[in-house]
Every structure is written in C-alpha cells, then in structure tokens.
C-alpha cells in the first residue's frame, strides 16, 4: 500500500484542466505536509498553485473535497505490484514500497495529516478507505498466486495478508516516532508471510478458534 508512486509533481497530459488539477493537488499536498489538515485553506492553496480562487472553490468546494481528490490522484499514480515468484519476495517488495513512502519527509507527513483528517471528517475517511481498498486489491493477487503455487493453504484471505504487511509500518509511523528502514519493512513482510503459512489468515479461522 502507500503512495508508492511517481513524483507527486508529475503533470500527466490532458490540457489546461489537467495542469490546473495537478498544480492544485501539488499545492494541497505541500500544505498538508507542512501544516496538517486543520490549517488547510482553499484560498492559500489557490495562491500556492497560482490558480484563481474561484476555480478552486468551484471545482472542489471544500477542503475535505480537495483532500478526497488528492487521495484519488495518489491512487492513480501508485505503482503496480511487483511479482517476484515467491510469497516472501512479493511481500517484501510491497513492504519496502510502503516503507519508502512513509519514510519520505513530505509523503510521510502528508499521510499523517490525511489519517488525522479521516478521524474527524467522514468524506476524508471514505476517500482514505477507498485509497487503501485500491492498493490492497492491487497486491492481493500476489497472495492468491502463492496459494496456487502451494505456498499457502487454500482459503487464505489475500486481502488480510496484504493489510498485515503494512500495518506494523503505519503503527511505527503514528505511535513510536522510530525510524522506518528496510529492516523494519522486511520484518513486517516476514511476519505476515509466516502467519499466512501457519493459517492465521484462513477465512473463518477466528470462528474455528
């Protein structure tokens, strides 16, 4: 999961409308990373993006609407999954993408701000959930392929395995202040792989337990 994408300043083709959207979302991401959700202001974002205030208010309407569109853009830019041919290799690739995203000063701060916004704004929460649904869906086939290869038991919940990979990394980001390095990513991937092999993520396993 995670942003896992191209340079957030990248402008995709599509004419003036696309350039305006890119500039505004870049400015919104910068402002979020610098000041957090509570201090976002559409007029300030318009100034940063060198776009008319009327354009920003007409297109996005509210700060929450702008943050939701920022998450849509992040999902669109996110990199596709890596397939290495082994469960552990795939989960390490996933974990290292998340780790690089969260360890990046700008992107890590941006995610903290968006998560904070999601705790108090329903639209921000909905957008954040959609972002992670997209990213989990992208990586889940790696787990199903491991089931097909015989690495994991039939009935393994692929989505839960992918969530388990990134969960420890977000926990460190939000609660401990400890640095996030590749060793932390590899531990998270290894733990998720071991648990999956042991049947922890079998659908209905909690009921049988």
TrEMBL record:
<feature type="domain" description="HTH tetR-type">
    <location>
        <begin position="18"/>
        <end position="78"/>
    </location>
</feature>
<dbReference type="Pfam" id="PF00440">
    <property type="entry name" value="TetR_N"/>
</dbReference>
<dbReference type="InterPro" id="IPR050109">
    <property type="entry name" value="HTH-type_TetR-like_transc_reg"/>
</dbReference>
<dbReference type="InterPro" id="IPR036271">
    <property type="entry name" value="Tet_transcr_reg_TetR-rel_C_sf"/>
</dbReference>
<dbReference type="InterPro" id="IPR009057">
    <property type="entry name" value="Homeodomain-like_sf"/>
</dbReference>
<keyword id="KW-0238">DNA-binding</keyword>
<dbReference type="GO" id="GO:0000976">
    <property type="term" value="F:transcription cis-regulatory region binding"/>
</dbReference>
<dbReference type="Pfam" id="PF16859">
    <property type="entry name" value="TetR_C_11"/>
</dbReference>
<keyword id="KW-0804">Transcription</keyword>
<protein>
    <submittedName>
        <fullName>TetR/AcrR family transcriptional regulator</fullName>
    </submittedName>
</protein>
<dbReference type="InterPro" id="IPR001647">
    <property type="entry name" value="HTH_TetR"/>
</dbReference>
<dbReference type="GO" id="GO:0003700">
    <property type="term" value="F:DNA-binding transcription factor activity"/>
</dbReference>
<feature type="DNA-binding region" description="H-T-H motif">
    <location>
        <begin position="41"/>
        <end position="60"/>
    </location>
</feature>
<dbReference type="InterPro" id="IPR011075">
    <property type="entry name" value="TetR_C"/>
</dbReference>
<keyword id="KW-0805">Transcription regulation</keyword>
